[in-house]
Amino acid sequence: MNAAILQALDELLRSPRQVAERARAGGDLRALFIASVSAIIMGAGVFGATLATSRGGAQLLYSGVKLPFALIATLLLVVPAFHAIASGLGRPLSFSGMIGLTLAAAGRAALVLSALSPLIWLSFDRGLTYHPGVLLATACYAVAGVAALGIVLRGIGFDGRGFVIVGLFGAVVMSTGGQTAWMLRPFLGRPADASVPFLRGREGSLFDALELSMKQSLDAGPGARYESR
Amino acid sequence: MTDQSFPTLSSICSSSGAATALPGTQVVSESAPEQAPQALVQELSDPRRDLTRLASGLGFAALYGLALGARLGGASLLRHALASSAGLAAVGVLGMPALFVLLALVNAPVSPAAMLSVGARALGSAGFVLAGLAPSAALLSVSIESATAAAFVAQGGLLLSGGIGLYQLVSSVRRLLTGLSFGLRMKSTALLLAFCVFAVLLACRVWCALPILQVGR
Question: I need a surface site. Which of A113, B45, B131, B185 has the fewest CB within 10 A?
Answer without folding.
Answer: B185
